[in-house]
Every structure is written in structure tokens, then in C-alpha cells.
Fold this protein.
Amino acid sequence: MSDDCIFCSIVDGEIPARTVHETGDVLAFLDANPLARGHTLVIPKPHAHRVGDLDAGLTDAVFDAVAALTPRVQDVVDADGANVGINDGAAAGQEVPHVHVHIVPRFEDDGGAPIHAVAGKRPDLSDDELDEIAAEIAD
Ligand code: AMP
Ligand code: ZN
């Protein structure tokens, strides 16, 4: 629990939410300002700011819930697809500092864009630079 965290307040029942799924580790509820019908957020119950702050057991629990809920949400709102994503850090658009996975149902001709549209100007990287980045990540 973190003071001043709105999602911790939802976990604690201090703020209402339209809960759609709950386990000991995970809570899922409708986004209060939905980008689409059925826009759902999946969160770990313990407070964690960034994806990298999550304990291994929680990552499993969160992704299990995401995998179960994504097709279910799509069915309920009769969507054609969904974007599933996390804004990790303020630079990526994270506003609520408690890890949450967005499930955003998508509809043919909804005027939206693929997840590739989130980035800014694309870098022009050489093969050497790509090799170097891959090697450093793999370290
Ligand atoms: P992000 O920009 O990834 O941090 O997204 C935060 C999301 O939380 C936004 O889509 C908000 O609409 C949503 N949100 C904020 N407060 C609430 C709340 N009390 N209940 C449900 N969703 C919320
Ligand atoms: Zn929190």
C-alpha cells in the first residue's frame, strides 16, 4: 500500500471501481475514462510503480489475468481485436504510479492506430548499432 496512490485506494476498497476480476494478487476493473467500450485495467494488488519493480510471482499472476481477460473482454463488447500495453514511467505516459496493464478493445474502422504509433521520431540505426544494443541487453 502506498499513500496517495489511487489504485491502492481501489484495492483497499476506499474508492469504488467496476471490478471485473479479482484474485489474491490481482485486480481488474474498467477504466474510468475508457478509450473504447470494455477498456480494462489489470493491476497487481501490492503497490509497485514500474514493471521492473514487480516480484516474479506477481508478473505471472498479472499476465495470467491479462491472458484470460483479453479474449473475454473482446467477446463481451464484440470487438475485433485489442491492444494490450503498459505505460512504464512518466516519459512513456504513465500517470498513475501503480503498474497497470491496459486492455483496449479495438474495432475495425475505429480510427485508431497500432501500438507502433506510441513512439516519437524513429531512429535510423545501423546494423552495428543494433548489434551493440542487442548485445548489451542480452548481457
Ligand atoms: P496511465 O496513463 O497508463 O497511467 O493510465 C491511467 C489510467 O487510469 C487512465 O486510463 C485513467 O482513465 C485511469 N484511471 C484513473 N483513475 C481511475 C479510477 N479511479 N478508476 C478507474 N480508472 C482510473
Ligand atoms: Zn499503489
